[in-house]
């Protein structure tokens, strides 16, 4: 199986999540307005601030919620690159990870 894009950054993110990084997994943005607010906040970060992106978007390295939401079913997930295509994130992800910007 391919490692996907940017293996070095993938490892950095994997290690940060495995170290127990606390992220803002809640509240989930129930409305478009709330989603847009989180996206706008992400845009204020330095694009290289990976930790900040993970914290603000509520990253987890496992599925989340009663329906076990995962990147794999999210509209922003690019399977061939194992990549999150949400412009405000634009990071390597694994299919069974999750963040609160999840959308189907
Ligand atoms: S928006 Fe979140 S859940 Fe969706 S692919 Fe990106 S990181 Fe995964």
Please, could you describe this protein's structure?
By secondary structure, the protein is mostly helical. The chain has one domain (7-92). The chain has three helices and two strands. The chain has helices at 7-18, 32-43, 50-56; strands spanning 77-78, 83-84. A two-stranded antiparallel sheet has the order 1-2. It binds iron/sulfur cluster. Iron/sulfur cluster (SF4) is lined by residues 71, 74, 76-77, 84, 86, 89, 93, 97-99, 101-102.
The overall number of domains is: 1
Taken as a percent bin, the fraction of beta residues is under 5%
Molecular shape: globular
| Number of distinct beta strands | 2
Q: Give, in order, the helices and strands.
A: HHHEE
From the helix content, strand content and strand pairing, which structural class follows? mainly alpha
Spatial arrangement of strands, main beta sheet: 1-2
Low-confidence parts, pLDDT < 50 over ≥5 residues?
Answer: none
Number of helical segments?
3
Gap between N and C termini: 25 Å
Gyration radius, in Å: 13 Å
Bound molecules: iron/sulfur cluster
Mean pLDDT: 96
The largest β sheet comes out as: 2 strands, antiparallel
Q: Percentage of helical residues?
A: 25-40%
